[in-house]
Amino acid sequence: MSSKKTLFDKVWDSHVVHHIDNGPDVLFIDRHMVHEVTSPVAFLGLKNRGIKVLHPEKTFATADHNTPTINQHLPVEDPLSANQLKALEQNAETYGISYWGLGHEKNGIVHVVGPEYGITQPGATIVCGDSHTSTHGAFGAIAFGIGTSEVEMVLATQCIMQAKPKSMRINVEGSLNKGVTPKDVALYIISQLTTSGATGYFVEYAGQAFRDMTMEGRMTVCNLSIEMGARGGMIAPDEKTFAYVQGREFSPKGEALNKAMTYWETLFTDEGAQFDKEITFDASNIEPMITYGTNPGMGIGISKSIPTADVVEGGAATYQKSLKYMDFHEGENMIGKPIDFVFLGSCTNGRIEDFRAFTAIVKGRKKADNVTAWLVPGSHKVESAIKEEGLLDILEEAGFTLREPGCSACLAMNDDKIPAGKYAVSTSNRNFEGRQGPGSRTLLASPLVAAAAAVTGKVTDPRDLMEMEMA
C-alpha cells in the first residue's frame, strides 16, 4: 500500500479509535456543535439512561433554526420554537455546555459562529446535527452532519461510528471572471455533477480558484458539498487559514499554538496520493449562476436559457413536474423574470463578505418597489461589522433594513416564510419545493445576483450593473 496520503486520509486516520473488521470506524470527535432542533431527543436519551455528556468542554450550543429575526428581545411566539429553544437552554445548563442563546453576544448560525470564535480548527473532526456542517471543511477539517441518534452517541462518548467514505478531488484551475463568486463556483460544480454526483465521497477542493478564495469564500463552497451528495468537503489549510484562526477566543495560544501549527502544516495531500475519483474544471467557463428548478443541481449560467428535458438528470416526467412547480418552461431565459423576494443570509452566505458584496451593488441605487428584502446576518459579530463598516448606512439609504441573526428564510422554521407562488432570489443552499415556505419558489444565487435582483425587481446579470459603475 502506498504511503502517500490525501488530506482526508491524514485527518480521518489520525482520529480512528478503533477499526471494526468489515464494519465502520470508531472516530473521535474534536468538536460537537449543537442547536435546538436536533438535540432535544438526544438529551432526553441521555437523561433516560442516566448518562452525562462526556466532554462538555468540546460541545458548543447555539440557537439558530427557530429564532425570530425581528424583536428577539420579546418572547418567541411560536410554541414549538419556544419549547425547543427552552429545552436547549435547560439541557446546556444541566450538562455544563457553553450555550449562546437569544440575546447572547455570541449567538448566531452554528456554522458562522464556529469559525468566528476559533472553535473550528485545521485537522479537527467536527459534527453537528445539521447537514451543512460541511462548511467547517474550509479549514482542512473533516466536518459532517449527523442524525439525532448520532448526536446522542457523540454527547455520551465523544465518538461516532462511521464507514470511511471514498475520496474525490475536484480541481478548478485558473482565475474566476468578474462577477463570479465562490457561490457561483459551487453551483456550477453541482450543475455539472448533479445532486447525486458525489454520493459516497468526501471531496477535497483544489486548484487556483480555491487557493485565491478568502476563508469565507471557501466556507461557502464547502457548505454546498452536501448538495451534490458528498459526505463533506474540505480544502487544505494554508497561510490564509492560519491567519484567520489565530487570535480567536477558542484558538490555541502560545506554546499550544506552536504545537498546533506543527500539526497544521502537515495537512496537505501528498504528491502522488491517489483519489478514488478526480475531476477538473476550467474557472473561465463559470459565470454568475442561478437555479431554475427544485434542486440545487438545476442551475445554469445566468445568461443561458432553461435546458430541455433530454439533457437533464431524472427523466422528463420529474423535470416537467419541477418546471410546473416553478411555472417555468424549457428554453426560457432567466434574465428578466420578475421576482418578489430577496433573501441575503444563511450559513452559506450570511458572512460579512457577503454583505460587502451585496452592498457594493446596491450602493447609489434603490430597492425595487416590488421586492421584499430580508437581509439577515449570520451572527451578532457580522451584524456589528455591518454597522461599523458603514454598510448599514448605505443599505438603509437604498431602502433596505437589517434583521437580527438567525437561519431565517433558509428553511422557514421561523416567521420568515416566502408566500406560496412567490419568487425569491435566495443566497441560501436549497431550493426544494416548499423549502422557504409552502408553495414558495426559490432561485438560488450569489449575493451579487441577489443584489442585482433587489434593485431591478427581476433576474438581472450583476455584471451589467458592475459595468454601469465602471462607465
Automatic annotation (TrEMBL):
Reaction(s) the record says it catalyses: (2R,3S)-3-isopropylmalate = (2S)-2-isopropylmalate
Signal sequence coordinates: none
The protein's required cofactors: [4Fe-4S] cluster
Binding site for [4Fe-4S] cluster: C347, C407, C410
Comment on bound cofactor: Binds 1 [4Fe-4S] cluster per subunit.
This protein's pathway: Amino-acid biosynthesis; L-leucine biosynthesis; L-leucine from 3-methyl-2-oxobutanoate: step 2/4
Key words, A-Z: 4Fe-4S, Amino-acid biosynthesis, Branched-chain amino acid biosynthesis, Iron, Iron-sulfur, Leucine biosynthesis, Lyase, Metal-binding
E.C. numbers: 4.2.1.33
Matching Gene3D superfamilies: Aconitase, domain 3 (3.30.499.10)
Annotated Aconitase/3-isopropylmalate dehydratase large subunit alpha/beta/alpha domain residues: 9-457
InterPro entries found in the cross-reference section: 3-IsopropMal_deHydase_lsu, Acnase/IPM_dHydase_lsu_aba_1/3, Acoase/IPM_deHydtase_lsu_aba, Aconitase_4Fe-4S_BS, Aconitase_4Fe-4S_dom, IPM_dehydratase_rel_enz, IPMI_cat
Molecular functions per Gene Ontology: 3-isopropylmalate dehydratase activity
CDD domains: IPMI
Enzyme class: lyase
Subunit structure: Heterodimer of LeuC and LeuD.
Entry's family note: Belongs to the aconitase/IPM isomerase family. LeuC type 1 subfamily.
Function: Catalyzes the isomerization between 2-isopropylmalate and 3-isopropylmalate, via the formation of 2-isopropylmaleate.
Name of the featured protein: 3-isopropylmalate dehydratase large subunit
Biological source species: Maribacter arenosus
